[in-house]
Amino acid sequence: MMPLGDIFDAQYGSNLELNAQKIMDEDAGESVAFVSRTSKNNGVSARIKPVVGLAPLPAGTLSVAVSGSVLETFLQPGPYYSGRDVYYLEPRCTLSDMEKLYYCLCIRANAFRYNYGRQANKTLKHILLPAPDEIPDWVKSFDFPDFVTTMVARLVNPV
């Protein structure tokens, strides 16, 4: 086991307020996902117009709510912006999407520590997770192509 901060570079997200953004139609080609602290829809609560002068957070990172739905963690397949109290995690080593999804589950498994309104903003980097060399073999060999392809397609172009 090792601290999350040794496996991921944890950084505060975009810190945007949804009510100050232009919400776009989901079919709009130029829209960007807005990830909030919700536990639904991969954390995506809307699609918004790109913010001039602010690059979206990178695809392939994990979004983590540190308040609200504390430790709801999702793999984000495309670039995105985030609301307040959402961190994004960039792996410090090469991880497959399945390994990232495994870490989403491991992070969420710690949510019980944050009941009664506690936030994870100060302790996120210290949460103990399995080291990359401790990831079970079934995670590395598990094949989920239809699910991953379907979910990525759905998140990039919601129905």
Concise account of the structure shown:
The protein is 21% helix and 21% strand. With 159 residues, it is of the alpha+beta class.
Task: Characterise this structure.
The strands form 3 sheets. The chain has a 4-stranded antiparallel beta sheet. The protein has 4 helices and 9 strands. Strand 5 and strand 6 form a beta hairpin. Helices cover 21% and strands 21% of the residues. By secondary structure, it is an alpha+beta fold. The radius of gyration is 15 Å and the shape is globular. The mean pLDDT is 90.
What is the radius of gyration computed over CA atoms, rounded to a whole number of angstroms? Answer: 15 Å
SS content category: alpha+beta
Instruction: Report the sheet with the most strands, covering strand number, pairing sense and barrel closure.
Output: 4 strands, antiparallel
What is the typical, i.e. mean, pLDDT?
90
Overall outline: globular
Stretches with pLDDT under 50, minimum 5 residues: none
- Portion of residues in beta strands equals 15-25%
Number of helices: 4
Strand order of the largest sheet: 2-8-5-6
Order of helices and strands: EHEEEEEEEHEHH
Q: How far is it from the N-terminal to the C-terminal residue, by CA?
A: 39 Å
Report the count of strand segments.
9
Helix content: 10-25%
